[in-house]
Amino acid sequence: MSNLSIYEAVRTPPKEALKKITGGRLSGMTDVNPMWRLKMLTEQFGPCGIGWTYEIVDRRLQEGGNGEVAAFVDINLHVKVGEEWSAAIPGTGGSMFVAIQKGKPYVSDECFKMALTDAISVACKALGFAADVYWEKDRTKYSDARDESRGQPSPPARRAGTGNITAKQQARMFALAGGDKDIVKTVLTSRGYERSEQVTKAEYDALCDEIEGLRQLKESAGN
Questions:
Q1: Are the C-beta atoms of residues 215 and 208 closer than 8 Å to each other?
Q2: Total-model pTM
Q3: C-alpha span between 7 and 201 (Å, rounded)
Q4: Which of 55, 57, 114, 168 is most exposed, with the fewest beta carbons within 10 Å of its own?
Q5: 110 and 194 co-located in one domain
Q6: 69: helix, coil or strand?
């Protein structure tokens, strides 16, 4: 088995598994149907509990700013290749338990379920699931062939200096993170960036919101 055989098999979700996010701070991003991941886990490794499984390591609530509370779930994903089980593939997912909407608190009774779904998706990223969605720069000659077969143009790669943010805007991101480079790195990585100068102007505001929100949650957890 090639080192990239699983990655190549699961890197490109079908068009029907993708949905554009049209509202909120993630507007413009692409959402991947979670059932596609479960189907592909089953296709690659076997039924849940036989060819792949996960264990919940921790779940917790953390207070944020303005009375909001977030729910987090940590898991270890295990997959079976041949007769051998993999080491733990960690994943952390989050969802809002208490969100402020139109000035009033909204409580979700499905926050841990949604956080678990998110945690599975994070763990699956390490195996290459939906890689083409998260990292548009990883284009190959085979990528172009796949796009043509679907009648869709290949998405342009992000390039530094083409519609990207200024040095002053980069500095603001680190200021919003309270100087914590790990926070900035976490958010950049989640959106497929390697360096802050690659951030596009179109995504800048949403990215700043994520950085500030993560900093607030981290500060709350430390109190």
A1: no
A2: 0.60
A3: 30
A4: 168
A5: no
A6: strand
